[in-house]
Amino acid sequence: MATRLTTPCSSSSTNFSPSSSFNNEAKLFTRFISMPRKYGLSTWVSHIHSKTHARKHFLLNSSNEHPLNAFSLQDGLAGNPLAKERIEPPGKERPSIPMSEAEKEESTLSITVVGASGDLANKKIFPALFALFYEDCLPENFTVFGFARTKLTDEELRNMISKTLTCRIDKRENCDDKMDQFLKRCFYQAGQYNSEESFLELDKKLKEKEAGKLSNRLFYLSIPPNIFVDVVRCASHRASSANGWTRVIVEKPFGRDSESSGELTRCLKQYLTEDQIFRIDHYLGKELVENLSVLRFSNLVFEPLWSRNYIRNVQLIFSEDFGTEGRGGYFDNYGIIRDIMQNHLLQILALFAMETPVSLEAEDIRNEKVKVLRSMKPLKLEDVIVGQYKGHGKGGKSYPAYTDDPTVPKDSLTPTFAAAALFINNARWDGIPFLMKAGKALHVKRAEIRVQFRHVPGNLYKRNFGTDLDKATNELVLRVQPDEAIYLKINNKVPGLGMRLDRSDLNLLYRARYPKEIPDAYERLLLDAIEGERRLFIRSDELDAAWALFTPLLRELEEKKIFPELYPYGSRGPVGAHYLAAKHNVRWGDLSGEIYE
Amino acid sequence: MAALSSIHCRSYSYSPFLFSSSSSSINGQQFQRINFSSSGISKRFLPAKLFSQSRKNSYHGVVLMQDVAMPVNPVENEASFKKVKDGLLSSITSAEELKETAGFDVNKDESTVIITVVGASGDLAKKKIFPALFALYYEDCLPKHFTVFGYARSKMTDAELRNMVSKTLTCRIDKRENCGEKMDQFLKRCFYDSGQYDSEENFTQLDKKLKEHEGGRLSNRLFYLSIPPNIFIDAVRCASMSASSANGWTRVIVEKPFGRDSESSAALTKALKQYLEEDQIFRIDHYLGKELVENLSVLRFSNLIFEPLWSRQYIRNVQLIFSEDFGTEGRGGYFDHYGIIRDIMQNHLLQILALFAMETPVSLDAEDIRNEKVKVLRSMRPIRLEDVVIGQYKSHIKGGITYPAYTDDKTVPKDSLTPTFAAAALFIDNARWDGVPFLMKAGKALHSKRAEIRVQFRHVPGNLYNRNFGTDLDRATNELVIRVQPDEAIYLKINNKVPGLGMRLDCSNLNLHYAARYSKEIPDAYERLLLDAIEGERRLFIRSDELDAAWSLFTPVLKELEEKKIIPEYYPYGSRGPVGAHYLAARYNVKWGDLGAEQ
Questions:
Q1: SS3 for B140?
Q2: Keyword NADP: yes or no (chain A) (predicted)?
Q3: How far apart are alpha carbons B220 and A59 in whole angstroms?
Q4: What are the helix and strand counts (H, E) for chain A?
Q5: Is A296 within 8 Å of A417 (Cβ atoms)?
Q6: pLDDT tens track for B436-460
Q7: Is pLDDT at B50 greater than 50 in this prediction?
Q8: Which has the closest alpha carbon to B254: B143, B97, B119, B81?
């Protein structure tokens, strides 16, 4: 399987999935037999499909590259010959590549960035696409389309994009060449987000580029949530692929609570099947979050420790060292709990705490994650503390309060900081506090997972540790950003004639070991979406379960108008977080005196 | 607590309780009072008590060497300690601590320690013992009244000895400006006496000199026997008969070899015990004084994450590796008589193995640890001939330089079959280790200088990522490496994802490199061991029953090797050793961790 090892781009499940070739065959088979069923009845096809989907879905266990929905949007004519064509080469099927060689040359991929003039598109999406192109991870025939309301020519779009592209990966001499080549593949289409006509126009342009070849289309919705559904409706009705797949990447926020999220999902599902929806959580694309499962499941030394028997508490910490900086309009409507905790931190928690999945396939992993979420108690108000940063003058410089932000109401109670204690009521984790902490305008920028182990029972050396044995326990830290690192705090003897113990780190500093730059989370996630790898995207039931945990709390906070604890800009956050931790007999690992990092 | 300020010197049984040092002075006073008033022990007795670290049997040694006039009442003393302990249950730690420190405070000025290096003109004395003593002095670890005596057959004046000693002293620890001064002060405490090793008269003479220096104070005497084994007994006899302390303790440090096999070792022990109690005998194994060997127990017992893994359930094999990058270099006379198995394996590596594999001791007291070590040794099968590979280095020409064969050494017989390399597989037949191979490897004239412990873990059962590991799952297991020398380090090999878009796994290290974390130089093993001997800490010294058990594992195979005249496998000087070691490992499904391609 030489190709598996050499392709740097293939995402994980394609890389290993032991049954992928079987899956492909199975998929081809279902594809083939399902063709006649929707012959000519394209309007209700999607309907039928979404009904039959669930069953097939489980039948196939995990439908990887070519979701069933791919043909729900196909038109009947193209179906049959294609199906035959695809059935012929199963022997040559390359499990690691979404399409067989023969197909690859004939299929096209169009990535349409809806909201192309926005910030995220410019800062993240286009650069990530270029990086993928640069690394030869995109299919041969790919096109990038920008779609937004602004009138722009292709040239203007290219000009705009080119400013944010960098050849960061490793400075090869052909970077400019590559950039030119990439920009030549970028096009622009202006239109209204809720106009089916505009999307019909887009469809026309896409078809031009596809030139009759198999068409796969990926829509990246980089737009405000209130127009999600409109765009999805228009895109699915007017710009779906006729003979390949159509997928839609959606960014957070996925609603504000259980109801609005449920409503959004319901609306999306009117036009898309579950397999077409790629809810992105870019934290799941971070290198060390990806590595979390590898650490757990490919090292004998960690798995035996991964339970309430040995782990005392787990801390999920996210902090930013800047505030909303004049752009708090969106944030104020959501707050830090919705913005960071309910999605990023909770997702990491689920990955951390899940049982060993049957395989590394997306559905197996997501099944396990949902189980974790469903085993958790909804958060109680007393297990949460909220904070908001206030103005602070330091070294002659004055830092603004959250409410100084002109886009934020003066009397806003929106938390910019929150800490919470969560519990998983299952056999593995019963009673273990999972502490989350997220905040803006804190003293450092940091995202990390800290696992504090229990103290050594009957410790022979306990006299060396002072009165609090828990202060000297082992701690495993996965630092997601900045400076990716894994380290394990251990007790060892201070070299010398005495017997003084010390906590040292067993270290793996990524920068030292892997000098190559680590790809941005968006690159990984875009590639996964292109390849149909859903492992890092959030399934509807996961999302529901996540909201179910946070919605009662969020409501109570808002109904009772809980006043956030104010903390100075650039500080370590409200002290309430310490008291919350103390209540559960935990000490924050990132704020203890001895920590120098 | 002035005595505690020099805390860095104390070995741990004295001051493990660093945290409470600041808060316990009141307790200390109390304890002192209780101690003296309730038991009525004389102050003179205290040091012996102190040094014995509350082990009952340690009195006997002292008592034996003591004058009968000494007011000894160990039973009452013990009882009073008990009483005190009971009374102070809540603060028992500080009480124990202060027991030691209080004693020091009171008796410090009145007791003396004299360290007599028997064989003072020898190599070990010059290279290791005197420098270690100076380093201890330099770090203020020696008692106030200490004297160093050199004793040997050569005629020398004190000044000549000082001159000789001064050449090897360095201020290595950290270059403080007063090093020269300290050196002078140290040298002023060094004296010399010449005499025969088997002459009681000469030792009586020595005793006289020692008494002069003690000036009537409580006298504690440590003899370091840095002499060939054939005169051990004579020296011990003379020292104990004629130069024992009259009112303090007398201890004797003995260096390897402790015999050649079970019989000779037992004979040696028996002879020593004619003159010394077990508690007076300090059999030194300087490997046990190495920083990372000391740290082994700390790692195991003070970290939750290691102990659950420490058994046959998770550990696939353990490797104990020792290699030197030089041969006998013209000094093979002694070595040829012993060979690498006796020189390195039966003592250093086996001791480390026992420490590694022992059950959790009841406490960190010397006897508790040594009890556990003996249990390990007694659970082991004697080594079989087929589980041993031996080798001998042959000459090798590299880059125009000719490296000699072992038998080119002029002090070695031309037809010597003495192994300069050996590898062996050992097994511990207890519940924790049944079936786990412990592989040892030791050799001279190899490609690197190294001493390390490698712990290879089992593969992950039902590994989700096993597609990434190729066919041999065991190749990608975790491995814990404790590198004893050079460049002390601990690292744990883990599998992680190579950063990037794919899913390639890689083996990285979670590292603790001592040089990076601890800038201060690590003390030499001899410093630690000398200090322990002075303080009566026996944890790192080998007890007679340990020694017996160790010999009984190796004696049959040594005998068989010699009787059958097994010819060693030859390996070139500077190579990685005979390939036979790989086949031995392969038989137990082990791969040497130090010779993997990635290293």
A1: coil
A2: yes
A3: 84
A4: 22, 17
A5: no
A6: 999 999 999 999 999 999 999 998 8
A7: no
A8: B119
Size of interface A-B (CB pairs under 8 A): 231
Measured in Å, how far apart are chain A's first and last C-alpha atoms?
42
Is B315 strand, coil or helix?
A: strand
Decide if pLDDT at B22 tops 60.
no
Structure confidence at residue A169 (pLDDT): 55
* B residues 267-286 closer than 8 Å to A (CB): none
Which residues are paired to B162 by β-bridges? none
Quickly count: other Cβ atoms within 10 Å of residue A392's Cβ.
16
Q: First CA to last CA across chain B, in angstroms?
A: 49
| pLDDT at residue number A594 | 44
Q: H/E element holding B532?
A: helix B525-535
Query: What average pLDDT score do residues B283-291 get?
Result: 88
pLDDT band for A43, please (50, 70, 90 cuts): very low
| d(C-alpha A150, C-alpha A28), whole Å | 42
**Of B8, B213, B337, B348, which one is the catalytic site residue?**
B348
Give Cβ neighbours of residue B468 (< 8 Å, ≥ 6 apart). A15, A16, A298, B476, B503, B504, B505
Which residues of chain A does B361 touch, with a Cβ-Cβ cutoff of 8 Å? 460
Distance from CA of A245 to the nearest CA of B (A): 22
> Encoding tokens for residue A191?
């239109």
- Cα B459 → chain centroid: 34
pLDDT tens, position by position, A216-227: 999 999 998 889
User: Looking at the complex, does the CB of residue B448 fall below 8 Å from at least one CB of chain A?
Assistant: no
Helix (H) or strand (E) holding B319: strand B315-323
Bridge-based pairing state of the strands A392-394 and A397-399:
antiparallel
Q: Does residue B486 have a cis peptide bond before it, meaning omega lies within 30 degrees of 0?
A: yes
- Rounded CA separation A278/A219 (Å): 10
Nearest C-alpha neighbor of B419 from the set B571, B548, B287: B571
**Residue B591 backbone class (left: φ over 0; alpha: ψ -120 to 50; beta: rest):** beta
**Residue listed under structure tokens 């270099």:** B329
Mean pLDDT of chain B: 81
Contact list, B527 vs chain A (CB under 8 Å)? 497
pLDDT > 90 in chain B, percent: 52
> What is the spatial distance between Cα A388 and Cα A405, in angstroms, rounded to a whole number?
12
- Tens of pLDDT along B128-158? 999 999 988 988 889 988 999 999 999 999 9
A453, A466, A495: residue with CB nearest B304: A453
pLDDT at A134: 87
Name which of A506, A488, A497, A490 is nearest B294 in CA terms.
A497
Measured CA to CA, the distance from residue B67 to residue B48 in angstroms comes to 13
ipTM: 0.71
pLDDT category, B52, cuts 50, 70, 90?
A: very low
